[in-house]
Structures are given as C-alpha cells and as structure tokens.
Specification:
With about 190 residues, this protein is mainly α. Helix content is about 75%, strand content about 0%. The chain has helices at about 15-25, 25-55, 65-80, 85-95, 100-115, 120-135, 140-155, 165-185. Helix 3 (about 65-80) runs antiparallel to helix 6. Keywords: Membrane, Transmembrane, Transmembrane helix.
C-alpha cells in the first residue's frame, strides 16, 4: 500500500517519491499500527509456545529456546521495520519539504523489506517439526511446520529473505489453529 518507490511512475525520482508518499500518510499509519500490533501478538504467542514446549519436550531440549528465538527475530524485525514510520508520516503530513528525497526513498525501501523478514519463523517451524517427531504434537502439525517453516528458513538464508513474509504468516496461521485444536483435545 506504500509503494511510491516501487511505482514505475515515481521510481528513481526521489522528489516524486516524496510527493507520492505525502499522499500515502494514512496507509503509512495503518501499516505502522498493524505491524506494531502484530509485533506485540507475536511476542505473546512466542512466550506461550515456549511455555507449552517446555512442558512437552525433554528438560534439556533446545526446541523451546529455538522456537521462542525464531519468533523473537520476527518481532524485532517488525519493531525495527515500523520504527521510522511515525517520523516520516508526521513530517510528510506537515510539510513534504521537511523530508530529504533520498531519505524518503530509503524509508520506503525499508518498510517494503524489513518488516517482512519472517525467516525467524522458519526456525520456529523447524523446532516444532522436531517436537512433533518426538510425539509432542500431531504429525500433521509437524509436517506443516517442516514444509512452511522449512521454506521460511530457506528464505532466511537466501538473498530473497523478505519472501518469508509470504510463508511465515501462513505457517503461523496454520500452527495457531493446530495449537488451538490441540489445546481443546487436551
């Protein structure tokens, strides 16, 4: 939704990017709020998952730590990814001339990449696969975590790391529903 730097009509022209971004302030603020809300929810989910994994895995297992660390990486990426939004949004709303065109272009690239670094969720997915292989969860949950988490982890180490922004949230949705089902069956 905040696409000034990617729009063929403005790409490569920092002054045109500033002008277009000044028209997208509402979208920037919605992006900021949604990203920060997601960040908070991810931390809560990660802590709950960590607690649950501690109870379902061996006392010396690395699985709970890897799981919470993976989602922690995602939450930090979202926190940092949305960190500049208010500074730019308020300056763009007040007077677009307050924003250096090159900085605005960088900002748009930043929010187009950093919050989508969901590769850490791949580590969590692989940890859940390991837990499911040891009987902590239903096999289908383990296989879903292997496939979606594995793809996210591959994106993490590739030059296309922001592509995990596609697979990571899908993994989270599938696992969340699976864990709710598991909790109801317990």
């Amino acid at each position: 939704m905040v696409d000034a730097v990617y729009d063929p009509d403005t790409a490569g022209d920092p002054s045109a990017v500033v002008s277009r971004l000044s028209e997208q302030v509402p979208q920037i603020l919605v992006f900021h709020t949604a990203t920060m809300f997601s960040c908070v929810l991810l931390v809560l989910f990660a802590v709950g998952l960590h607690r649950q994994l501690r109870g379902r895995t061996a006392p010396d297992s690395l699985v709970p730590g890897v799981a919470v660390a993976g989602l922690g990486l995602v939450a930090v990426a979202q926190l940092l990814g949305a960190g500049l939004t208010t500074e730019f949004a308020f300056a763009l709303a007040e007077d677009p001339d307050l924003v250096l065109p090159e900085s605005a272009a960088f900002f748009n690239h930043w929010i187009g990449t950093i919050p989508w670094l969901w590769g850490g969720a791949g580590l969590t997915g692989l940890a859940l696969f390991g837990a499911a292989r040891r009987g902590a969860y239903a096999p289908w949950l383990g296989w879903a975590s292997l496939v979606l988490g594995g793809l996210s982890a591959l994106f993490l180490v590739s030059p296309l790391q922001y592509m995990a922004g596609m697979t990571g949230p899908v993994w989270l949705l599938v696992v969340s529903l699976g864990l709710l089902r598991t909790a109801r069956e317990s």
